[in-house]
Amino acid sequence: MEMVNELLQRPLFLIYIVLIVFAWWVQARLISALRRKHHDLFVALGSPGIENASWSASQKALSAFIWRLRFFQVKDGEVRFYCVTLILITIYALAFLMWTWF
Question: Where is the chain membrane-spanning (predicted)?
Fold first, then answer.
C-alpha cells in the first residue's frame, strides 16, 4: 500500500495514467463510430467491445486495423481522426514511459 501511495504522489505517474484513460476513451469513441457509420467493417473486425465474448480476438483485429494503416481506406474523417489519435497517444505514452524509466 505504501508503494501505491508513493506512486500516486509522483506527477509523472499521474500523467501516464491520464494518457491511458484518454486512450481508452478514444478507443471507445472509435468503436462507437465504427458501429454507427461502418457496420460492415465493425462486424468484419469481430465486433470489438467489452461486451463481446471473444474480446481478445476482436481487440487484436482492431489493433491490426489501426497499426497497418488500413483505416486510410475508410472515407470517414471521424474514424481516421480517432485512429490517428490512438497512434499518437500510444507513441507519446511509450516515449513518456521510456523517459521516466531511463
Answer: 12-31, 79-101
- Among 27, 47, 26, CA closest to 38: 47
> Using CA atoms, how far apart are residues 35 and 60, in angstroms rounded to an integer?
17
pLDDT at residue 92 is higher than 70:
yes
Contact 29/79 with Cβ under 8 angstroms?
A: no
What confidence tens digit (pLDDT) does each residue in 14-57 have? Answer: 787 888 888 888 888 888 888 888 888 888 877 776 665 566 77
Question: What global pTM score does this model have?
Answer: 0.72
C-alpha cell at 70: 488500413
Q: How far is residue 85's CA from residue 23's CA, in Å, rounded to a whole number?
A: 8
Tell which residue, 53, 49, 83, has the closest CA to residue 67: 83
